[in-house]
């Protein structure tokens, strides 16, 4: 506030105000970096009543009216803040006034999927200086193209403007996921939606919803209502099927898939009370049940029946063609102690506990096949040798310091698709700046052939829920997750964190202006105070400009 | 605090009245209105929360009768925060007696926290409380220099400080360019006063001042020289050899003294780097001419100047420990704030606290409570078990411990994450500074702290889940009413 008045009135203070202007060349930059982007010196100003139109030959994709409305609101918000934001003066005058964004779509896909086409081209300034031309293969490219365009707007002589630009853009990886965990702590629906919106802005396309775990079971099933009735923290800490469908639709409108994870046979304590007395394995001490419970008991057919019932419902609720079946961290101690399991293994010639784990996971895989779902599994399922189909995506999560490379190599060598998650567990926070570490990871940095590298579907960042809930999840995720977003979208050669730094700072400021509480973890302002602030600070009690 | 099994229900339209022999202090009307709102916010969430069942209520409380002996009007180093609270069996009156208005704030806060559902009805147990702070200075540092903090976030933070019975906002304000308007500062100071919080501003000199340079004139900051004896274009700490720089500070601090009504100023004085002073030939010449042989002596000259300005303005002052360690002459009312991190593990007994109090000065403990240093997992326990009097010294020395100060330095926080990173971790320090020395078991504190976080969420404070490892204790994985940033929490702060 003070520096604005100094800027306007105080000659002596003009230098001080200039000190706070970031280098002009980062204003109007785009995050994540497009595949091909040519920016020219000349620019056009934007008409405040800019119109969005579809070309006559474009099909009417059902999400488009909502997309246009959202981006119209975002673009208009630039006009409100223009008078108080940083101004740049160019000697030249604008080449034109843009009053139209003309969108051409080749084909409607309706549902975002593993094969969704997200590519687009964007032309500003030519062939027309009055309209922007955005061409996309499918509706998803429209979302990404409008996002890119909106980020390019910056103020020149107090007026929202865009430089003449040519962009051809597409994602490097088709799976750009983010895991949220609603079991360790419940997340309000409003927070999940804000997260999905921020993901869409950052061109993520998969919400990996780790919906249940050992701590609580908030998925409110209609066919098995006792699971959440007895397994949720309280009957209010649940997601109803209607709420879930609403979230999935909200995500679809933003080009984001929702892949649910029902992790078995470990991590299932919260299922126990609602799933019946035979569901979890009773653990034994000194030959007697000791009252504690272990993983799901894989020797009873009724437990597979329960899962089939549940997954049949889940299959109808979640429209994505993939399910995440979990399968991580199964402890064998309890199974080893249980005499019924020992008997069963003897009868069935099972000699290792990995084999009995395989019996269970095979059951889950069979259910998924019957439901015509593809599936993602955590790496242990692959490592333990469970038979999985070729469409299976194996998610590598261990070895964040580097051994993930060996696992990625092994998974792809066997012909399976792989997703890298290990280095991107954003829940592990520390003091100071850490985004460079996430940025510098290269998912194909392992020993393999080109055919193997092609099996890398992408990656997933994660915010596990031990220490986050609605109070802090958004500022902990953003803008750290933006670093991963660029790694997964942009070209492999876009890998210098030094070059990315100022663009990321600019991107954080834009997210703040949109109302997302993206925290200041980009740099040390002691060393470089130019980046200690954003023109529009985030005010936690001003919801007026929440542009979600 | 004596709590018995019997209980009374609480009326949703509970009234606050002053008794016939009470003083009428100016903050009380606002205070009563705030706590009426807060108590109602607790009612809304109570319906859903767990409910203990035992017996029938012995009465129905519809009135809190407040008696204040004396209005102090402005919170100060000697403010009286004590109170007693009496909820008698069967009575519809809660009696709250306080020496001054600050005790009313503390007492109503305690009362609001005691309301809980019994048989689904908001209730309070029959209770007698006599309460007072262990330490007189329970501070929290915010830093509006590294990152700007919106006024709304500062105010919400002040409210949370008050709920946690902190009583000093140490405002590390420094940066002239981000200095808000005087009217905004006065608004914040008044907001804090109404909540029993003092505002002590810090203008840190002679180091940490690079942002002053552009506005303070060409002779203000020291020009640094390269090895060949030429100015290298960089600037160091304030140049202490020019009288005009002292005059500038006098002008500034005279204005500050008027804006900030608290009797104390924080003069800073930490982390002064000597390299630039050493390189500057004018300073070398000056030192030779004035028989100075060490750079702490030169620093001392500057700080001495600041101390004299403060004294001429009739202000007391707080200084960082270096000022004391470097031997600057400071008067007996000076509070020395310990801040250098002891890198020895396990922690040694605090030698700075020992030395400061041995010299007869008042001391504040700060270094164990730098909450800006975050890490993965739970860390409140280490803040909780700190003991400010854990140093070698006499009883007299221990009495010189004024309390402590918690800090959220601003390198990595702004309006997006200040409140979340601070709360409820700062609540651990709050209990250390308010409650009796023996209240130090993290095990017994854990469920109370969890309950307290949940209550802060209901009020709209985004206090993060820094409570426990919920893999082991899933009962601490949720609050009955989750925090939702799209809810309207206005009126609760």
UniProtKB/TrEMBL annotation, chain A:
GO terms for biological process: carbohydrate metabolic process; ganglioside catabolic process; glycosaminoglycan metabolic process. Keywords: Glycoprotein, Glycosidase, Hydrolase, Signal. It comes from the Eukaryota. This is Beta-hexosaminidase. It comes from Oikopleura dioica (Tunicate). The keyword Lipid biosynthesis does not apply. Its EC number is 3.2.1.52. Transmembrane segments: none annotated.
TrEMBL record, chain B:
Keywords: Glycoprotein, Glycosidase, Hydrolase. The keyword Hydrolase applies. It is an enzyme of class 3 (hydrolase). The keyword Nucleotide-binding does not apply. It catalyses: beta-D-GalNAc-(1->4)-alpha-L-IdoA-(1->3)-beta-D-GalNAc-4-sulfate-(1->4)-alpha-L-IdoA-(1->3)-D-GalNAc-4-sulfate + H2O = alpha-L-IdoA-(1->3)-beta-D-GalNAc-4-sulfate-(1->4)-alpha-L-IdoA-(1->3)-D-GalNAc-4-sulfate + N-acetyl-D-galactosamine; N-acetyl-beta-D-6-sulfogalactosaminyl-(1->4)-alpha-L-iduronyl-(1->3)-N-acetyl-D-6-sulfogalactosamine + H2O = alpha-L-iduronyl-(1->3)-N-acetyl-D-6-sulfogalactosamine + N-acetyl-D-6-sulfogalactosamine; N-acetyl-beta-D-galactosaminyl-(1->4)-beta-D-3-sulfogalactosyl-(1->4)-beta-D-glucosyl-(1<->1')-ceramide + H2O = a beta-D-3-sulfogalactosyl-(1->4)-beta-D-glucosyl-(1<->1')-ceramide + N-acetyl-beta-D-galactosamine; a ganglioside GM2 + H2O = a ganglioside GM3 + N-acetyl-beta-D-galactosamine. Residues 183-436 form the Glycoside hydrolase family 20 catalytic domain. It holds the Pfam family Glycohydro_20b2. Its EC number is 3.2.1.52. Residues 4-114 form the Beta-hexosaminidase eukaryotic type N-terminal domain. InterPro entries: Beta_hexosaminidase_sua/sub, GH, Glyco_hydro_20_cat, Hex-like_dom2, HEX_eukaryotic_N. Belongs to the glycosyl hydrolase 20 family. This is Beta-hexosaminidase. It comes from Oikopleura dioica.
């Amino acid at each position: 506030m003070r520096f604005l008045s100094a800027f306007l009135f105080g000659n002596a203070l003009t230098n001080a105000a200039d000190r706070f202007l970031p280098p002009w060349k980062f204003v109007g930059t785009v995050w994540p970096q497009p595949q091909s982007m040519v920016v020219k010196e000349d620019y056009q100003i934007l008409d405040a009543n800019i119109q969005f139109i579809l070309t006559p030959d474009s099909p009417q994709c059902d999400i488009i009216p909502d997309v246009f409305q959202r981006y119209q609101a975002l673009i208009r918000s630039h006009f409100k803040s223009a008078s108080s934001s940083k101004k740049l003066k160019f000697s030249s005058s604008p080449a034109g006034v843009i009053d139209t964004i003309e969108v051409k779509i080749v084909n409607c896909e309706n549902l975002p999927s593993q094969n969704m086409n997200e590519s687009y081209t964007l032309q500003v300034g030519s062939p027309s200086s009055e309209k922007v031309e955005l061409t996309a293969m499918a509706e998803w490219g429209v979302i990404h193209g409008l996002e890119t365009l909106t980020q390019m707007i910056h103020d020149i002589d107090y007026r929202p403007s865009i430089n003449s630009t040519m962009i051809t853009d597409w994602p490097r990886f088709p799976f750009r996921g983010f895991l949220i965990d609603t079991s360790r702590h419940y997340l309000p629906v409003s927070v999940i939606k804000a997260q999905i919106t921020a993901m869409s802005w950052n061109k993520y396309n998969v919400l990996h919803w780790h919906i249940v775990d050992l701590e609580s079971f908030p998925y409110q099933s209609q066919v098995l209502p006792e699971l959440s009735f007895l397994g949720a923290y309280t009957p209010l800490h649940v997601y109803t099927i209607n709420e879930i469908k609403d979230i999935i639709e909200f995500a679809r409108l933003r080009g984001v898939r929702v892949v649910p994870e029902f992790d078995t046979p470990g991590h299932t304590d919260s299922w126990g009370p609602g799933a019946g007395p035979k569901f979890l394995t009773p653990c034994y001490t000194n030959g007697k049940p000791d009252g504690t419970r272990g993983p799901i008991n894989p020797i009873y057919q009724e437990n597979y029946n329960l899962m089939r019932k549940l997954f049949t419902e889940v299959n109808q609720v979640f429209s994505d063609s993939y399910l995440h079946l979990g399968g991580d961290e199964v402890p064998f101690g309890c199974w080893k102690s249980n005499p019924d399991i020992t008997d069963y293994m003897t009868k069935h010639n099972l000699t290792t506990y990995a084999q009995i784990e395989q019996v269970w996971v095979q059951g889950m895989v069979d259910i998924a096949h019957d439901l015509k779902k593809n599936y993602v599994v955590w790496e242990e399922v692959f490592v333990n040798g469970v038979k999985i189909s070729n469409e299976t995506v194996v998610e590598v999560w261990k070895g964040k310091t580097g051994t993930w490379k060996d696992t990625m190599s092994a998974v792809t060598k066997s012909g399976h698709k792989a997703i890298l998650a290990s280095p991107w567990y954003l829940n592990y926070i520390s003091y100071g700046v850490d985004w460079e570490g996430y940025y510098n990871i290269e998912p194909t940095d392992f020993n393999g052939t080109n055919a193997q590298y092609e099996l890398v579907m992408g990656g997933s960042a994660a915010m596990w829920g031990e220490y986050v809930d609605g109070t802090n999840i958004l500022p902990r995720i953003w803008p750290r997750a933006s670093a991963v977003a660029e790694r997964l979208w942009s070209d492999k050669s876009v890998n210098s964190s030094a070059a990315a730094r100022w663009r990321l700072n600019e991107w954080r400021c834009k997210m703040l202006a949109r109302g997302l509480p993206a925290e200041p973890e980009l740099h040390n302002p002691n060393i470089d105070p130019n980046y200690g602030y954003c023109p529009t600070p985030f005010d936690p009690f001003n919801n007026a400009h929440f542009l979600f | 605090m004596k709590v018995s099994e019997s209980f009374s229900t609480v009326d949703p339209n509970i009234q606050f009245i002053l008794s016939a022999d009470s003083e009428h202090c100016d903050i009380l009307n606002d205070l009563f209105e705030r706590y009426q709102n807060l108590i109602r916010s607790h009612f809304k969430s109570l319906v859903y929360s767990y409910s203990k069942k035992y017996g029938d209520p012995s009465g129905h409380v519809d009135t809190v009768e407040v008696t204040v002996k004396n209005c102090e009007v402005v919170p100060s180093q000697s403010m009286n925060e004590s109170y007693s609270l009496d909820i008698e069996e069967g009575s519809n009156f809660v009696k709250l007696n306080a020496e001054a208005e600050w005790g009313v704030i503390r007492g109503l806060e305690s009362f609001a926290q005691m309301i809980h559902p019994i048989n689904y009805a908001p209730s309070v147990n029959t209770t007698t409380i006599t309460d007072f702070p262990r330490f007189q200075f329970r501070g929290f540092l915010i830093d509006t220099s590294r990152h700007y903090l919106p006024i709304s976030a500062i105010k919400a933070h002040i409210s949370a400080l008050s709920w946690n019975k902190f009583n000093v906002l140490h405002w590390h304000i420094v940066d002239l360019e981000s200095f808000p308007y005087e009217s905004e500062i006065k608004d914040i100071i008044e907001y804090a006063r109404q909540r029993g919080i003092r505002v002590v501003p810090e203008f840190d000199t002679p180091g940490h001042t690079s942002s002053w340079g552009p506005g303070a004139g060409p002779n203000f900051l020291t020009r640094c020289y390269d090895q060949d004896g030429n100015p290298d274009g960089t600037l160091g700490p304030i140049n202490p050899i020019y009288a005009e720089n002292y005059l500038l500070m006098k002008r500034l601090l005279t204005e500050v003294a008027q804006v900030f009504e608290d009797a104390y100023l924080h003069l800073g004085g930490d982390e002064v780097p000597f390299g630039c002073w050493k390189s500057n030939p004018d300073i070398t010449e000056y030192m030779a001419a004035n028989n100075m042989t060490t750079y702490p002596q030169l620093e001392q000259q500057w700080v001495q100047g600041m101390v004299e300005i403060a004294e001429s303005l009739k202000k007391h002052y707080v200084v960082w420990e270096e000022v004391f360690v470097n031997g600057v002459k400071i008067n007996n009312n000076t509070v020395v704030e310990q801040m250098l991190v002891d890198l020895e593990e396990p922690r040694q007994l605090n030698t700075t606290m020992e030395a400061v109090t041995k010299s007869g000065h008042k001391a504040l403990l700060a270094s164990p409570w730098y909450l800006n240093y975050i890490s993965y997992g739970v860390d409140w326990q280490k803040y909780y078990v700190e003991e400010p009097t854990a140093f070698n010294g006499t009883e007299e020395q221990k009495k010189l411990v004024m309390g402590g100060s918690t800090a959220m330095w601003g390198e990595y926080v702004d309006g997006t994450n200040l409140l979340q990173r601070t709360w409820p971790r700062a609540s651990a320090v709050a209990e250390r500074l308010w409650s009796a020395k023996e209240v130090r078991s993290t095990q017994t504190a854990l469920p109370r702290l969890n309950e307290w976080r949940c209550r802060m969420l209901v009020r709209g404070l985004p206090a993060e889940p820094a409570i426990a490892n919920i893999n082991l204790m899933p009962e601490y994985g949720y609050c009955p009413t989750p925090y939702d940033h799209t809810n309207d929490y206005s009126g609760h702060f």
